[in-house]
Amino acid sequence: MKLLTSAIFDGYTPKKDRSISLRFVTNEKTSGEVSDIHSMLDTFGYLYFRAEEKLSKEEIEELDKLDTDLYDQPKTQSQRLRNTLYKVWQQSEVGEFKDFYKNETERIITHYKNKLEE
């Protein structure tokens, strides 16, 4: 899903982790447009803001061609694995998570080490 709209840059707020929260104000939106915008909350994407000028057809086409597959997951692979193992642990809740995590990652490492020996 994409959002392409005119907007006024309204301000920013610096965050503790050195990221920045940006605020934009748009013209009035229909309830359908608001629903589409709401459905994009907490998703990763790109923001391109160009002041004072309309986007050219070429710019729009270039933006549409962006390869977002590399950045659709804002977490690293190791973070995703740890989060997934945590969810598995939550379903079983056997012992402490740190022990479960250590055992599962060791099992995965051993599995691939054995493939190297073959």
Secondary structure layout plus pairing:
Layout: E1 7-14, E2 20-26, H1 31-39, H2 57-64, H3 77-92, H4 97-117
Antiparallel strand pairs: 1-2
What's a concise summary of this model?
The chain has 118 residues and is of the alpha+beta class. Helix content is 46%, strand content 13%.
Describe this structure in words.
There is one protein chain. With 118 residues, the protein is α+β, with helices and mostly antiparallel strands. The chain folds into two domains: 7-71, no CATH class; 77-117, no CATH class. Helices cover 46% and strands 13% of the residues. It is built from four helices and two strands. The chain has helices at 31-39, 57-64, 77-92, 97-117, and strands at residues 7-14, 20-26. It has a two-stranded antiparallel ribbon. Helix 3 packs across helix 4 (97-117). The N and C termini lie far apart (45 Å).
Outline: elongated
Which segments are poorly predicted (pLDDT under 50) over 5 or more consecutive residues? none
H/E series: EEHHHH
- How would you write the strand order of the largest sheet? 1-2
Q: Tell me the number of structural domains.
A: 2
Strand content: 5-15%
Helix content: 40-55%
Evaluate the radius of gyration.
Answer: 22 Å
Mean pLDDT: 84
Number of strands: 2
Largest sheet: 2 strands, antiparallel
